[in-house]
Amino acid sequence: MTTDFQQSRAALGARLRELRGPVSGREFAARLGWTQSKVSKLETGRQTATAADVRAWATAANQPEAASELAARVQGLESRTRSWRRQLAAGHRPVQDALTVEYERSTHLRAWEGAMVVGILQTADYARAVFTRYSELHQSVRDTDDAVRARLRRQAILYEPGRTFDIVMWEAALYAAVCSPPVLAAQLDRLASVIGLDTVRLGIIPLGAAVALPPAGGFWLYDDRLAVVEDWHAELWLDDTDSVALYGRVWGRLQNSAVYGASAHRLIARAQAMAAAA
Q1: Does residue 96 surpass a pLDDT of 90?
Q2: Which of 236, 234, 237, 235 is nearest to 226 (CA)?
């Protein structure tokens, strides 16, 4: 995942270095009005160029005809790495709408989440708490109510025949106090209610279970064509065969440690008891 992105960024850096030609890095930075360190980081793939950066670069290199090629390379990077800063420029609602398109295109959806309840199973109040926390973190537009409504509308897809949701969560997610105890209690009730739904297989990995891999960041697999991976700074949208297959193997190995049905219900009931006592 990161290797593919880094290789693409390094390739872009090499192309930028080629366009700079015999001009020194110091002189080139002066032409651009940048620091020399920025020029160095872009050329060595240690910083991601923006579309504005590469247009300026082509102009400074006296090769304006290269601007469209460089912009296409940047767009390719952004199609894989979708920074939260850019995605949330207009708030959370557009992000939810983009994901809804992928849900609707898919029939088999697999998810791993170790930190919180997955969005497709969130209650309105739980989702509101999550969106609020992330808006505060990223200092983004506050469109919380619109984002919540978009997420809840998407949940209608859970009941459409012909789709399968294979969701695996870590037991720790049942205790994450990202909201008030009453909201968490209602969320856990919601989780318990989807067990047995014919379109949903909800597995929970107990805290003490042996796992083939260390539980890490959450991700979704949309059929066998797309993996969407969440990190603090960005979402990675990976559609190359190797990356999707890798995340499929990760999901399968984590899923092998999950419990289902009555056993999953008991784990939820234990978390409910703690939430009620809080």
Answers
A1: yes
A2: 237
CATH top-level class of 2-81: mainly alpha
The rounded distance, in Å, linking the Cα atoms of 260 and 195 is: 8
Enter the pTM of the model: 0.77
Bridge partners, 17 (sequence order)? none
**CATH code of the domain made up of 91-277:** 3.30.870.10
DSSP assignment letter at 168: E
- For the segment 240-276, what is each residue's pLDDT rounded down to a tens digit? 889 999 999 999 999 999 999 999 999 999 999 998 8
Nearest to 169 by CA among 144, 148, 188: 188
Give the whole-angstrom CA distance, residue 121 versus residue 96: 14
Sheet holding 108-113, edge to edge: 81-83, 234-238, 226-230, 219-222, 108-113, 164-170, 200-205
| Domain positions in the chain | 2-81, 91-277
Q: Is 161 left (phi over 0), alpha (psi -120 to 50) or beta?
A: beta
Residues paired with 164 in a beta bridge:
108
β pairing state of 108-113 and 164-170: parallel
CB 222 within 8 A of CB 102: yes
Which range (27-36, 65-74, 191-200) has the least confidence? 65-74
Phi, psi of 204 (to 5 degrees): -125, 130
